[in-house]
Amino acid sequence: MDYQVIWFILIAVLFIGYFVLEGFDFGVGILMPFVSKDDIDRRIVINTIGPFWDANEVWLITAGGAMFAAFPHWYATLFSGFYIPFFLMVVALILRAAGFEFRSKMPQRSWRRTFDQFIFWGSLLPAFLWGVAFTNIVQGLPIGADMNFTGSLIAILNPYALLGGLVVVLVFVLHGALFLSLRTTGELKARVEKIARLMWIPIGAITALFTILGYWQTMLFEGLGLVPGTLPTLAILSFIATYVFMRYQMQGYAFGAIAFTIVLGAAVVFSGLFPNVMPSSIDPANNLTVYNASSSRLTLQIMSIVALLFVPVVLAYQGWSYYVFSKRISRDAIPREQ
Within a domain: residue 277? Predict the structure, then answer.
C-alpha cells in the first residue's frame, strides 16, 4: 500500500475520531440551555464534559497538522477556500473554551449567562460549519488547474450544504443527549432521555432527505444505483438500533449505536471520495487526489515513524481519562456556593 493511501486513511480516522468524540460534547453544549432548570443543572451538564472537551479537540489539531504535512495542496486549497467559515469556527471554539474556563469565576447571573451563550454558540456554529464544509467537498468545488479554489462564500452556502450542516448538528445533539443520559441522574437524566426519544424521528426524516438528495448532489453513491452500499446500509441499521435501545432503556448501547452511525457516516464520505481528497466541479482533471496533493515519499515515511511511536501513547492516555471520569454526576456532587 502506498504511503499516500496510508496517510489518507489515518487522516480519515483522525477526523472520524474527532466527530465521534467532539460530536457528543458539541451536542451537550447545544443542549445545555434546554435541559437545565437552574444553575446547578447547568454546572452538572458542563461537568459531564469538563474532563474531555479539550482533549477531544486534539483530534482536530492532529488531523489538521497531518493534512498540512502529508497533503499540503489539500490543506492549502481547503483552508483558503473555506477561510471565512473556518475563521468563524476558530472564533467560536475560542469563545467556547472561554465559556468553560471562566463561567464560574464570578457568581453574578449576568456573567454566567454570558458565558453560557459562549458555550452554546461555540458548540452550535462549529458543528454546523463542519457539516457545510464536508457537504461542499463531496458535492465538488470550483477548483482550477492550478489547484486553487475559485468560488465564493455564497457558492459555499448553497441549500444542500446548509441542509448538511443541519443534519450534523441534529445528529450531534442526539449523540450529546445520550451521553448526558449516561452521566447524569434524576430529573435531568429523565429530561435528556425524553429529548433523545422525541428527536429520533425528525432526525431520521431530515437525514433520509439529505441522503436521498445526495444521490443527485454528490458523487458518493456513483455506481450504487438505488441500492445502498454496505456502509450506508450499516449506518441506517445502526441508527434504527439507536431507537430500539432507547425504547428498552439500554442507554449505553444506544450511545454506542449512534456513535457507530457517526463513524459509518463519516466513513461513507471518505471512502466515497477516495482517491480524491477534493473533487473539482469545473473539470475532473482538476481533482485533488492523494497522489497529486501529497508530500514527498521521504516526508511520509518520517511521519509514519513518528505516528507509530506517539499515537498509541495519546490513545492510551485519553482512554484512561474516560475510564477515570466515567461515573455519573448527581446534584449532591455539586458544592453549594456561599
Answer: yes
What CA–CA distance (Å, rounded) separates 172 from 128?
Answer: 10
The total number of structural domains that make up the chain: 1
From residue 297, alpha-carbon distances to 56, 178, 281, 286, 310 in Å are: 30, 43, 29, 22, 20
Residue 314 lies in a domain: yes
Tell me the pLDDT tens digit for each residue of 137-188. 998 889 988 888 888 888 888 999 999 999 999 999 999 999 999 999 889 9
For residue 286, is it within any domain? yes
pLDDT digits (tens, 9 = 90+) for 259-299: 999 999 999 899 888 889 999 888 888 899 999 989 888 88
d(CA 208, CA 91): 32
* Cβ neighbours of residue 17 closer than 8 Å, sequence gap 6 or more: 59
- Residue 337 placed within a domain: no
Task: Say which residue the cell 474556563 belongs to.
Answer: 101
Range of the domain at 315: 3-326
Closest of 190, 207, 206, 205 to residue 246, by C-alpha: 190
Spatial contact of 189 and 180, defined as CB atoms under 8 Å apart: yes
Quote the CA–CA distance of 82 and 127 in Å, as a whole number: 15
- Measured from the Cβ of residue 281, the count of other Cβ atoms closer than 10 Å reads 17
pLDDT digits (tens, 9 = 90+) for 8-34: 999 999 999 999 999 999 999 999 999
Residue in 245, 285, 275, 249 with CA at minimum distance from that of residue 261: 245
Q: Is the dihedral of CA 192, 329, 317, 121 positive or negative?
A: positive
- Collect all residues with Cβ–Cβ distance below 8 Å to 312 and sequence separation of at least 6: none
